């Protein structure tokens, strides 16, 4: 038996899978570039990118080739050995960032978990045991492990799971005085998303990030950028922090890094590396050769002038098309974000209709995401073609005509 072709449907979901999710009515079975097909052969234009993950579209031929090649060499070694793809990928990350050292994990939450643990370990080893306070921001999202939901700024994700870790404080995003009010010598780290993703595509202001850097330096706290959603090309630069002229002490990446293969990384400096010894943290799969080989190829393709500078042009085209749509429907008040992480801020009178709009869009053959409670989010392939953009927007127009 190689592949058994029993028919599974969306209805099977309710009988088999724990309802932590409420997936759409159709099941994608094939993808190519920015298009996916469902079980019935219906085709969709994908502006969701698997939630900012499939940064080179679906089944990119080079990624397929690399995955295939590596799958015939070696799949898994564990961390009792190192491996060639991990070392090559680490070198690429170090050469193209502020960082000197890399830790690999498997998901955004795990990279953040490592970052939070490391910031506490560093501060309590280097300064004093009470220096363990982490400051994060309301509406932030850092993953679903218990530490990361507790640091995250939406208590609905951490309530009813028993006692939460202590030493976590929340301040208001883009309001520096709310940070000044709570930071002190016991603060070990400030963590933020440069663009709050799940929270509604809200970019941090340049002055806010600069002030955070100054505060961190003053109080010997580490500045952590969670670039799980913004990293590896999404904003038009390899890392979003390059737009801000501020360097972090620790940075996490995941989503776009593997182009669809699960992998994440935490990047940091020589100074912070100094407290690390074997055994204080780890993971079985982190730095898996298959994942690292795919991620290496993903970076090779994205970190080129061609792809990165192309993002601006694609954004311009999307905004152009959205503005035409808005002339007809007055759907949104603002387009937010950076590069191809796009938030369409919906008019208050249409907020209740967002789910209907998404559903109608599926029916017309175009896929969007939401973010926060009033934003339609787009995070398409960084190499989406102009004709896919135009076709997708036409379908969006038809969907709106039927819903509004
Ligand atoms: C998606 C996301 C995470 C969590 O990543 P997982 O891979 O789902 O664990 C963390 N931080 C940010 C900013 C994200 O967008």
Write the layout of secondary structure elements.
Layout: H1 10-16, E1 28-32, E2 35-38, E3 43-46, H2 49-52, H3 61-73, H4 84-95, E4 101-105, H5 108-126, E5 133-137, H6 146-151, E6 168-171, H7 176-180, E7 187-192, E8 195-196, E9 202-203, H8 206-218, E10 222-226, E11 250-253, E12 264-268, H9 270-273, H10 289-302, H11 305-329, E13 332-338, E14 341-346, H12 354-364, E15 366-367, E16 369-371, E17 375-378, H13 386-403
Parallel strand pairs: 3-15, 5-6, 5-7, 7-10, 10-11
Antiparallel strand pairs: 1-2, 2-3, 4-12, 8-9, 11-12, 13-14, 14-17, 16-17
Helix pairs in contact: 3-10, 4-10, 11-13, 12-13
The structure holds pyridoxal-5'-phosphate.
Function: Involved in both the arginine and lysine biosynthetic pathways.
Pfam families: Aminotran_3
Modified residues (N6-(pyridoxal phosphate)lysine): 255
Q: If you had to describe this structure to a student in words, what would you say it looks like?
A:
The chain has two domains: 10-61 and 305-403, Aspartate Aminotransferase, domain 1 (Alpha-Beta Complex); 62-302, Type I PLP-dependent aspartate aminotransferase-like (Major domain) (Aspartate Aminotransferase, domain 2, 3-Layer(aba) Sandwich). It contains 13 helices and 17 strands. Helix 3 runs antiparallel to helix 10 (289-302), helix 11 runs parallel beside helix 13 (386-403) and helix 12 crosses helix 13. The strands form four sheets. Strands 4-12-11-10-7-5-6 form a seven-stranded mixed sheet, sandwiched between helices. A four-stranded mixed sheet has the order 1-2-3-15. It has helices at 10-16, 49-52, 61-73, 84-95, 108-126, 146-151, 176-180, 206-218, 270-273, 289-302, 305-329, 354-364, 386-403, and strands at 28-32, 35-38, 43-46, 101-105, 133-137, 168-171, 187-192, 195-196, 202-203, 222-226, 250-253, 264-268, 332-338, 341-346, 366-367, 369-371, 375-378. The mean pLDDT is 97. Pyridoxal-5'-phosphate (PLP) is lined by residues 107-109, 112, 141-143, 193, 197-198, 226, 228-229, 254-255. The site of pyridoxal-5'-phosphate has 15 residues, from helix 5. Its main location: cytoplasm.
């Amino acid at each position: 038996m190689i592949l058994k072709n029993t028919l599974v449907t969306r209805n099977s979901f309710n009988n088999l899978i724990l309802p932590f999710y409420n997936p759409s009515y159709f099941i994608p079975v094939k993808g190519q570039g920015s298009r996916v097909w469902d079980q019935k052969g219906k085709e969709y234009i994908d502006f969701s990118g698997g939630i900012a993950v499939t940064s080179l579209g679906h089944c990119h031929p080079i990624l397929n080739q690399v995955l295939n090649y590596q799958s015939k060499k070696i799949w898994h070694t564990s961390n009792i050995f190192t491996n060639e793809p991990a070392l090559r990928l680490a070198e690429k990350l170090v050469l193209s960032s502020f960082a000197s050292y890399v830790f690999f994990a498997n998901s955004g939450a795990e990279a953040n978990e490592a970052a939070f643990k490391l910031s506490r370990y560093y501060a309590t080893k280097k300064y004093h045991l009470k220096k363990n306070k982490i400051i994060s921001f309301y509406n932030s999202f850092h993953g679903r492990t218990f530490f990361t939901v507790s640091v995250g700024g939406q208590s609905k994700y951490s309530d009813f799971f028993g006692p939460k870790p202590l030493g976590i404080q929340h301040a208001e995003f883009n309001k520096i005085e709310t940070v000044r009010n709570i930071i002190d010598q016991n603060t070990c780290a400030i963590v933020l998303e440069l663009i709050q993703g799940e929270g509604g595509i809200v970019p941090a202001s340049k002055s806010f990030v600069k002030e955070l850097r100054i505060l961190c330096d003053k109080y010997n706290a580490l500045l952590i950028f969670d670039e799980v959603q913004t990293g590896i090309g999404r904003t038009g630069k390899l890392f979003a922090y390059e737009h801000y002229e501020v360097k972090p002490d620790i940075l996490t990446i995941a989503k776009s890094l593997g182009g669809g293969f699960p992998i994440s990384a935490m990047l940091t400096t020589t100074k912070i590396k100094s407290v690390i010894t074997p055994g204080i943290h780890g993971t079985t799969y982190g730095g898996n050769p298959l994942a690292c080989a795919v991620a290496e190829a993903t970076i090779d393709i994205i970190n080129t002038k061609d792809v990165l500078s192309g993002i601006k042009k694609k954004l311009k085209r999307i905004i152009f098309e959205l503005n035409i749509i808005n002339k007809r429907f007055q759907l949104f008040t603002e387009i937010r974000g950076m590069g191809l992480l796009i938030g369409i801020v919906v008019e208050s009178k249409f907020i209740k209709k967002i789910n209907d709009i998404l559903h109608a869009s599926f029916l017309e053959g175009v896929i969007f995401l939401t973010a926060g409670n009033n934003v339609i989010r787009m995070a398409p392939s960084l190499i989406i073609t102009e004709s896919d953009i135009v076709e997708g927007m036409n379908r969006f127009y038809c969907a709106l005509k039927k819903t509004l």
